[in-house]
Amino acid sequence: MTSIQDQIRQRFADLSPALQQIAKYLLDHPAEVVTTSMRSVGANAGATPATLVRFAQHLGFEGWPPLKAAFAADMGLGGQAYGARAQRLISRAGDGGLTQEMFEVQRRNLEATQAQSAGALERACALVEKAPAVHAAGFRACFPIAFAFVYQYRLFRTTVHLVDGQGGVLEMQQRAFAKGDVLMVASFAPYSREALQVAEAAKAAGCRIVALTDSPASPLSLLAQETLLFTIDSPSFFPSVAAGMALAEALVELLASRAGRGAVRRIDEAERRLLETGAYLEAPGRRR
């Protein structure tokens, strides 16, 4: 089936200059079509809402909402709602095979993620290790992915920063983005508005972007220099982030393996401080 973006490209030459202006903007900013209002898209494209409706109708849609849905479908946003999935899960109460199915699905997720992203990991590692500073962002279910990456990477590199927006400081944290930095950002469908906002701010600042996401057509992937795909299948009501966590850990593992003896020294020092400050509980045999 032809995507909506391909349909627009095929019909571009037949559009009036006003509609061509809209078409060009939508092709350049497909994520904005899905994540923002029609009024916002019109303001940025230099078109009135009425002209956007006329553009949609010219393509054979009844109005803007069906056109927006077509863009969303291209990005893989047509999945079943959490509530419907939860209802199906409740109907399986007492099913002894449910837990086994969960672990089997997770194993398949890891295998699929390895097949999709093993090659890209080396390229992402090369981007990250050369950057003056590295920023990581993930919101809602993807927050653990970003946090784990920062926590582990900070054990041997100081210029790693978590972008989490705590206390309403997301805009302030984005001010730290600088040309040449790298942003690692994680999100899956339905994509987090904050994740897209951070990615767009990073791109505007001249950062390079590594996207951990579920589709090469995701709005994050469209902005990224490198995309690490992870599979989110789950028999539960909520998508799984286990493979995303594995990707983040694999990226840190590669970075550590290439960081040299200096990284070993910093990791040893970090562990020693954690023990000395009482952050870790020591086994009885290690107490002095």
Average pLDDT rating? 89
Q: How much of the polypeptide forms β-strand, as a percent range?
A: 5-15%
State the CATH superfamily name of the largest domain.
Glucose-6-phosphate isomerase like protein, domain 1
Q: Provide the domain count.
A: 2
Neighbour order of strands in the largest sheet: 2-1-3-4-5
How many runs of DSSP E, i.e. beta strands? 5
Q: Per CATH, which architecture of the largest domain?
A: 3-Layer(aba) Sandwich
Provide the CATH top-level class of the largest domain: Alpha Beta
How many helical elements?
14
Helices and strands in order:
Layout (H helix, E strand, L loop, with lengths): L3 H8 L5 H12 L1 H6 L2 H8 L3 H10 L5 H11 L7 H9 L7 H33 L3 E5 L4 H11 L6 E4 L6 H5 L7 E5 L6 H12 L3 E6 L5 H5 L2 E4 L12 H16 L3 H16 L12
Parallel strand pairs: 1-2, 1-3, 3-4, 4-5
Describe it.
It is a single chain. It contains 14 helices and five strands. The protein is an alpha/beta fold and 288 residues long. α2 crosses α4, α8 packs parallel to α13 and α9 packs parallel to α13. The relative contact order is 0.12. The model has no long low-confidence stretch (mean pLDDT 89).
